[in-house]
Amino acid sequence: AKEFTEETLTKLDIFDNYLSEWLPVGIRNPFIKDSFIFDFFAGSGSDAVGNQGSPLRFIDVIKKFQEQLIGNKHQVHLILNEYNKKKYDNLAKLISEKQDASKLAKENLAIETHQKDFREHFKWCCEQGFVKNTFNLFILDQNGIKQITKEVLLELDKFTKSDFIFFISSSYLL
Q: Which candidate, 41, 32, 46, 54, places its Cα nearest to that of 2?
């Protein structure tokens, strides 16, 4: 793994800030008991010098809302996918360590890690009946640019209580 670039660190800060504003909306709504965060291209969890990637940073943000999660009997589901075996193995190890260290109860934070091809994982996510009517945040980024088709975006549009963040380099569009 390489060290994250300044641009990647900025992207991670944007994720953190967005999640910090998005998550309380679901937690405070008495009709929403579950929030789902899908990171389809989760990466290895950290860079070469130990900077945390998005999945580990998400846990830190979620931890900030621990009291509200408990008080509102709310559960966040963090669904992480990384296709590359080496990155996946590192991610799974770091996630397990981070979840234990966070002391967030499984009733408040459920984490699943998957090692699937994007199309297979996306199809699986869309087939989950609960996803259509829950509070969802879908994270898509530059690593999956070739996977994100018009059909994928149209499918995401069907999730009425959902947001998605799609980071793409402007140089790719030129």
A: 46
